[in-house]
Design a protein that fits this description.
334 residues, mainly alpha, 15 helices
Length: 334
């Protein structure tokens, strides 16, 4: 009887997750497919290089070769994979790649990922500013921290040749898009099913307890634990798709979503994206610790500002109340 009840609850949880999973997946694909095509065409026409040339003076201030601008611009418009491809073609030294790794990990794929976060209620301009500013600060500090002779061995693959002509470009994009569609459908569906099952059997409550000390350090409410895990293990796009569903269901407050967005904007995909640079020979600490520090500082700063404004409003309300009371007393005396 007990086994039958568990089976029924399991099937109900899976069935309950399928509809929102498909809705989230198709919403994500409708956004990602045209954006990726636009960026591929932009890169093919040479606009990415123009932007990189314009940004070169700023990167010189960070102790980086002017060509490093191309890496960050490519990363910001596309993905970590594209940035690594550019790194492989530029022949940058180990110290420069270490700095660029942190910068790219904080501010990559801005168009797609900012659109995802915007749909959860975040300010698109705020998220872009936060990620770009944090990446520049992180790069500046790493340039000050790392010794001039900081060195190591880079393991880079041979860069594939650029597409020749529009036909080859579109074929390459279609191949990548086909893989993307399957990946999104599978991952988002499995994530929603997993989340529904965990909620049904109250496993999420059990999972959040060991992470309470970490969430407290990060400045995040416990209610965001599951989504924080999803975003940091699988990335912002997939975590964002699940988050959109949670926000629509009213599972999280606006304040909780805001704090979570601030955190995962800088630390998302700790597993996959970090591994990409680790596989190049960059140390684990350099691809994770700077992002975690940026996240903790900005979240606590946001909470501090919010507490100050809240206290200021309360003081104003109290002052207004006192003034009204004094007026009533004076009127009474008259």
């Amino acid at each position: 009887m007990l086994q039958s009840d568990i089976k029924q609850r399991f099937c109900a949880a899976v069935k309950r997750a399928l509809k929102p999973a498909m809705r989230s997946a198709f919403w994500l694909l409708r956004m990602m497919i045209p954006i990726t095509l636009f960026v591929v065409i932009l890169d093919y026409l040479g606009f990415v290089q123009v932007i990189a040339d314009f940004a070169s003076p700023l990167f010189n201030l960070l102790g980086l070769d002017g060509r490093a601008a191309l890496v960050c611009i490519t990363s910001a418009l596309t993905s970590i994979y594209s940035a690594i491809g550019v790194i492989a073609g530029l022949g940058l030294d180990f110290r420069s790649v270490t700095i660029l790794a942190t910068m790219c990990l904080i501010s990559h794929n801005l168009i797609v990922e900012t659109t995802v976060q915007k749909n959860t209620g975040a300010s698109a301009y705020g998220i872009v500013f936060l990620r770009v500013f944090s990446s520049l600060i992180a790069g500046f500090l790493l340039n000050k921290i790392l010794p001039d002779d900081f060195s190591g061995t880079l393991f880079l693959n041979v860069v594939a040749s650029a597409p020749q002509g529009w036909g080859e470009l579109l074929l390459s994009w279609l191949g990548t898009t086909g893989t993307l569609v399957i990946q999104v459908l599978v991952i988002v569906t499995l994530l929603n099913i997993c989340q529904s099952i965990l909620k049904e059997f109250k496993v999420i409550d059990w999972l959040t307890k060991p992470l309470r000390p970490l969430m407290a350090v990060l400045g995040l409410p416990y209610s965001t634990t599951f989504l924080w895990i999803v975003a940091n293990l699988l990335g912002l796009a997939y975590g964002g798709a699940v988050m959109v569903g949670e926000v629509r269901k009213g599972e999280l407050s606006e304040e909780d979503v805001s704090l979570l967005n601030t955190s995962i904007a800088q630390t998302h995909s700790l597993l996959e994206d970090s591994f990409l640079f680790i596989s190049l020979g960059i140390g684990l600490w350099w691809v994770i610790l700077p992002r975690m520090v940026c996240s903790v500082v900005t979240v606590w700063a946001q909470r501090g500002i919010r507490a100050y404004l809240s206290g200021h409003r309360k003081a104003e309300d109290l002052s207004d109340g006192i003034m009204i009371s004094e007026k009533k007393i004076n009127n009474y005396k008259i």
